[in-house]
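Hi W.,

Here's what went into the run:
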Amino acid sequence: MTGRRPAGGESARKIAVLVGAAILLLWTVFPFFWILLTSLKSPGDMLSVPPKFVFSPTFDNYAALVMGEQRGDYASTRPDFPRFFLNSIIISFGAVALSVAAGIPAAYALARFNFPGKDALAFVFMSFRFVPFIAFVIPLYLLYQKIGLYNTHGGLILAYQLITLPFTIWMLRSFFQEIPSEIQEAAKIDGCSWLGVLTRIILPLSMPGIAVTVILGFIFCWNAFNYPLMLAGRQTFPVTVGAIQFISYEQVLWGQMAAATIVAALPQLILSLMVQKYIVRGLTMGAVK
Amino acid sequence: MSGKVARGRRRRETLLPYLLLTPALVLLCGMIYPFCLGLYYSFTSYWLQYPKRFRFVWFDNYVSLLDEPLFGRALEFTLGFTVAAVVLQVGLGLAIALFLHGRIPGRGAIRAMMLLPLMMPPVISALMWKIMMASTNAGILNYMLSFVGVDPINWFGSTRGAVASVLIIDTWGNLPFVALILLGGLQALPSEPYEAAKVDGASPFAMLRYITLPLLAPFLILTITFRTMDSLRIFDVIYATTLGGPNDATTNLHIMAYQYAFQWYQMGKGMAQAIVLLILVVMVSYLLIRLWNRSAESNAQ
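Here's what came out:
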């Protein structure tokens, strides 16, 4: 009797663990699963009560998304989704490239030199992580209207620096600091200039870190919604603002919106699995490694 | 001669970091300039539709907030939502972290899956849940709830439903952030205190209360800090689902400032509200960062 009780406790524990894991998985994954199903439904299946799990799938929602024109009994898709997708790629690449170009020397300076105002400067960059976007977007909107940057890729790339530049500098700094300073000193004794140290030692050694920073920066740009909402127009909307265009006063195009969310999410899902070890570090700007 | 060269080199060494920082500083100016411009606008009666009324009004925009009934309600929702979201997410996140810290089969896979909601654009998560939260019976969430005897909930049309839905969507996206940081913290804890406690015959609950939580404090405060600051200025999820409604039930300061500036084009007033929100965020983050420093210090001792 006493010998069996621990065994019973053990299997009860196992069942509890399985139930817990199942709930966690369901909560995490079910929304993706359901949106995928929704994106494959025809309008009739979409509104059925109760919701259908089994139906004959159709790719019409995706086709409508890609072609952006009238198809059968589907309402025409006014949102031009292929263009939004391209816009997201252009703006995100541009913003990350600019941030990395300016961020590498800045991070090197903050990681390896001592100079007055260093900590204050690092803190100023960090503080942009927590600023309410509306405090920047109101003046940027007025300014961009005046100088012609409104509804341009260039203007958005500049505005996105609020997202990517502080992040890039802090991430790169934390990667640069991981390189032992002895290697640097040795190179200096061998006659390397600061440029030599940077290009021959720091950059090659921190290539993985730079790659992670680029990918995470790209993800954060792809996620951005509120800056382009106010600073972009129909020609420059990224996918995040594009997906919301399926809601209008007359109707919500549920199927196409579901397809749009899947398409908008796909790059994120792939990229974040690529850098999964570094995501927490990226989200805390290097504070947690 | 050689002294001159050395001095020249030293001067170059002191100037070098500033030179390296120049491109970033130029971009920084590109951020600070519009902010200063906005700060100036917050002291003016800038109204896009009536450009002729533009004048400097000192603190009028700030003072008039006190007479604005919506401001009080938005402030209340901002703070209430933040407290609710942080308590919910840190509480559940700690539970998930402790759960995954135990020997769970397939932990790596669960961890990887939890990254997916975390890395989704918040507005896309909001749209996904918006589809699931359709108020008719065609909504999958209401359908699932009907099995446990819950009547269909009017998610975005009722006050309580709207508040709950914003909270649920925000939690879905950010719970993994808390859980993953705390899990990392748990895995970095030393094992000696637990072995000593086991020898003394401490219960698992006592170990959690007197060993785990105190040692985890820096991580807890870090997640609380990040989640608090993000919850205070939540925008995307509310915009994509309720737009502050119904009856302003989910209007926080961020949404309110947006409405003033971009629906009614009162740029001066909107900017003043943005500054008030900014001050709130700065004050709260200052307190939390001080708390974090103190807990990190006491742990180091």
